[in-house]
Amino acid sequence: MAAPFTILCPIDFSECALNALEYAAKIGEKYKAELIVFHILNKQDYQIIAPLDLDGTYQKEFVAQKLKSLQETVLKESIPNGLQSCKVEILEGAIVQTTIEYSKKINANLIVVGTNGMNEFREQVFGSRSSKMVLQTDRDILVVPRKAFFKRPRKLVYASDYVEEDKSAIKKVVEFATFFDSEIDIVHVSSRTRLIDKALHKTMVEEIKLSISYDLVNYALRSFRDDLALGIENYLHLAKGDILVALSKKKDFFDQLFSKNLSRKMSYFITKPLWVIKSF
Q: Which of 139, 145, 252, 264 is the most exposed place for a label (fewest CB within 10 A)?
């Protein structure tokens, strides 16, 4: 018997983490998944949610009660809709590394994590913990911004760079899309219009059409004179995409999308979830 699809949702009880939990539960319903709500004891975070317990005497008990309350809510709302189970776990350690290690231990298929996004004091699109987790994990990860509240994704935008692994990644995107009857836009953004891009695009479209069976797929080739990431963001905005999907296999392409130098120019990304595909 195949192991159930497993979703890990690290939570610190912030607004963005609760948004991530909603996404995790709704996705878990479709995959008939096992959802694990995961908290790592951290004194700094704890003092924010329980300022009167300065020495952390009741930290674990307090956290356990809050996790139980969230678990009961998820069980009540999502089990009738297909979620297989919801468990809670508390560990101690460095937040990013402990999450990554635990995701391997349970063989998680997907990590769903919240992020505060970018505000006037930050230069990164993601909060530092989420950003490190995206870069270091070998698991698929969905990053949910604070302003993103779950709704049925009408359109997924897949950023392609014409690599062989795109075809395998797109099959995974199609599986996800069928749960929600979502459109999929497969888009390649180039810094300039070149004949070779048009030829590669035509070849890619032909190969993908042979490898998938899903009617709601659109293909787009766009040129954008400024940075690659801004081109993707512009397309995501104009196409009214709900989730941006990127494959991290090709490091230079992924780095271009999420360079620190670009993040201050970008605004739309911080309101839309990002699904980073790491494996097939």
A: 252
